[in-house]
Design a protein that fits this description.
This protein is an alpha+beta fold. It has a domain at 33-106: Translation Initiation Factor Eif1. 23% of the residues lie in helices and 26% in strands. The chain has helices at residues 57-71, 89-98; strands spanning 33-40, 46-51, 75-78, 81-85, 102-106. 17% of the residues are buried.
Length: 108
Amino acid sequence: MKNKRKGVYSTNPNFKYDDNDDEIQTPIAEKQSLTVHIDRRRSGKTAVIIKNFIGNTTDLKHLGRTVKEKCGVGGGVKNGEIIIQGNIREKVIYILEDKGYKCKKVGG
């Protein structure tokens, strides 16, 4: 795991880093309402973007990995969004609803 601490120096021997990113509690899937967007990239390729996830980045990355594995495609997690390659929005929605998330189609 990478060290996120960059450029912090203190002469205080009791100084503690503020690492509260992973301390955010992720609500259960039934209480989350995700939006599933379709996006056409510059190169003409289509991607599905999952937005409005509430929780810490570790859970977001785990959800993204699970969706990518079940769809058999590539993608990534960036800026709090999950990007899935391809025009497979219906399959993504089915997987998310099967895990208990509420999903809403947006765009396209």
